[in-house]
TrEMBL record:
This is Guanylate cyclase activator 2B. It is found in: Secreted. The gene is LOC112255472. It comes from the Eukaryota. Disulfide bonds join 68-81, 101-109, 104-112. It comes from Oncorhynchus tshawytscha. InterPro entries: Guanylin (IPR000879), Guanylin_sf (IPR036382). Endogenous activator of intestinal guanylate cyclase. It stimulates this enzyme through the same receptor binding region as the heat-stable enterotoxins. May be a potent physiological regulator of intestinal fluid and electrolyte transport. May be an autocrine/paracrine regulator of intestinal salt and water transport. Belongs to the guanylin family. One of its GO terms (cellular component) is extracellular region. It holds the Pfam family Guanylin. GO terms for molecular function: guanylate cyclase activator activity. SUPFAM superfamilies: Proguanylin. Residues 1-22 form the signal peptide.
């Protein structure tokens, strides 16, 4: 019984450490730094404006303006939304490979 309890505690500790570790991953775009969770939310919001998984370049400015106006967008993106050329930065963040960032194999991701 003690062995089972010990294994359960070790597994719980590993789970908690791994969850806390994932929260610390940051993504850098120019002078701005965003949490990985916020970038995931941005990607969810931009999926609705893409066609066949690709952003229409003619609608990029308009669709990212609507993303910036979306109340579901994390507040940490507001300074970027106010910048000139924000649509290009948001486009790069929206197409960033999250799965690679989660293991910190992407140059824009730090905090692993």
């Amino acid at each position: 019984m003690k062995t089972i309890l010990s294994i359960a505690l070790v597994l719980l500790a590993l789970y908690l450490v791994s969850e806390a570790h994932a929260v610390q991953v940051k993504v850098q775009e120019g002078d701005f730094v965003f949490s990985l969770e916020s970038v995931k939310k941005l990607q969810e919001l931009t999926e609705s404006s893409s066609v066949n998984g690709k952003q229409n370049p003619h609608l990029a400015s308009t669709s990212f303006a609507s993303v910036c106006a979306n109340p579901s967008l994390p507040q940490e993106f507001m300074p970027l939304c106010m910048q000139r050329g924000a649509s290009m930065s948001l486009s790069r963040l929206a197409t960033m490979p999250i799965d690679i960032c989660e293991i910190c194999a992407f140059v824009a991701c730090t905090g692993c």
